[in-house]
Specification:
elongated, about 150 residues, mainly alpha
């Protein structure tokens, strides 16, 4: 899917989060307790380094702007911010050994990411000013040489 330059870093990270979500769903469906436990520990390790910073970039840029807007984009920003909180709570429980959250985490991460890509980003591209898009790019671009790779199990 073609994205505006300002959203490419987030879209690239979304590709990795979809891979992680699918892996969560596959491991949960397989029912191998040891693989489940290992993946939960992997998620715990990468959450603070990659997932949560990604969420915070979206919150500080896109959701900060949508909060001042009305209509569908405002409501979508609120919903997605709440889903970030849900995933933070799930990740914390998985870190405590609660592998029962793995399938739910994978499902929410997958649906959340798809919603951002298919609904939020097209609205952002259509409704945000050039200055607002520039703010997103400034807050979300990768540092030189920085690429999120830890999503991959």
């Amino acid at each position: 899917m073609k994205r505006s330059l300002e959203l490419t870093t987030l879209s690239r990270e979304h590709h990795q989060s979809l891979r992680l979500a699918n892996h969560c769903l596959n491991i949960a469906a397989a029912g191998d307790r040891e693989q489940c436990r290992a993946l939960c520990q992997h998620i715990l390790r990468i959450f603070d380094e990659e997932l949560d910073p990604h969420f915070r970039k979206e919150e500080a840029s896109i959701f900060n702007i949508t909060a001042a807007m009305g209509g569908e984009i405002h409501d979508l920003g609120l919903r997605l911010a709440e889903e970030h909180e849900q995933m933070r709570a799930m990740a914390a429980k998985m870190g405590q050994g609660d592998c029962g959250k793995l399938a739910a985490f994978g499902k929410l991460l997958k649906e959340h990411t798809r919603l951002e890509e298919r609904k939020l980003f097209p609205l952002v591209e259509a409704q945000f000013s050039n200055d607002q898009l520039a703010q997103i790019q400034e807050k979300t671009q990768d540092s030189p040489g920085q690429h999120n790779t830890c999503y991959q199990p």
